[in-house]
Amino acid sequence: MKKELALLAIAVAFGIGVGISIPRAGAAPSAHPTKHRAVFHVNVAACNNTIRKRELSPSDLTPGVKVVDSGVAEVIRKQEEGWSYVKLAY
Q1: What is the DSSP letter of 18?
Q2: Which of 34, 39, 54, 80 is paired with 10 by a 20 to 30 Å CA distance?
Q3: What pLDDT does 76 receive?
Q4: pLDDT score, position 75
């Protein structure tokens, strides 16, 4: 019997990376980088420190994006829980 592997990923966005969680003006929802997150089992978390610094609010983010207190702290918490860290550039 063949086993299926499941992949669960969390994209933690902070600094300039928070841009992946903000819809682009005039762009179709299907053009947004987070559009496939449910298909690929990727959750997106945005740093509240960055949101405040950029004078945004959680309502400015794409629906379904979780707001965490600190993006760096979230990465550290996940690593302490046994998650692996993979840095991707956007």
Answers
A1: G
A2: 54
A3: 94
A4: 92
Cα(68)–Cα(11) distance, integer angstroms: 12
Residue at token pair 């993006």: 71
Give the span between the Cα atoms of 33 and 23, in whole angstroms.
9
Helix (H, G, I), strand (E, B), or coil: what is residue 80?
A: helix
* pTM (two decimals): 0.71
DSSP state of 15: G
3-state helix, strand, coil in the chain (%, to 5): 30, 15, 50
Domains in the chain, CATH or no CATH each = 9-19+36-90 (3.40.1260.10)
pLDDT profile of the chain (90 residues), mean per 10: 70 77 61 53 87 91 90 94 81
Amino acid, res. 16: I
